[in-house]
Amino acid sequence: MDGYRFTRDEDTGYYRCNSIRKRLHQYVWEKENGKAAEGYHVHHGDENKSNNHIENLVLLSGSSHMSFHQSQLTDEEIELMRENLTHNARPKASEWHRSLAGREWHKKQYEKVKDRLHAKIPLTCELCGNDFTNIKRTRFCSKKCKAKWRREQGLDDVERTCLVCEKKFTINKYFKSKTCSKSCGNVIRAKTIKERASS
What we know:
One of its GO terms (molecular function) is endonuclease activity. By secondary structure, this protein is an alpha+beta fold. It contains 6 helices and 9 strands, in the order E-E-E-H-E-E-H-H-H-E-E-H-E-E-H. A hairpin with a 6-residue loop joins strand 6 (121-124) and strand 7. The relative contact order is 0.05.
């Protein structure tokens, strides 16, 4: 077509021209309508990959196109796709990402987004009300404010039994106290002093 030679790819069933790196149905669509908008796919209306007449070609959004094809799959085909991903696609993808080319690609991607990744956001602390900046959204300006807020909310409270009067009391789990009050604590301290003196 137009001097280009399109041959059928036995694996996919599509007709492809390697010299222009394009499939026949895409070429036909672009010749009639211009390049498809980004994120859109050219779809065979009758599902016949050999029927590349313009009347049979439909432009669909990528998500609509994928949803349509997935809805046509049998349970067996879906399982085969999953197995292919697990045993072929994912291992090869991991291998490529670890390769020199893959690492270079990641470096380039990082360079493109690093300014946005490390951009500081203006925030206001929910506890003390101080304004501060951070590279990620967080509710508090410091660990101190976060810890105080958790104590006030009782998020880390646990129930213990007083070693002296056996009364149940609530206390922050990070506190070491084993008694419910100062008076009970004094009983423990007096006992400890007496034991040390007699030993």
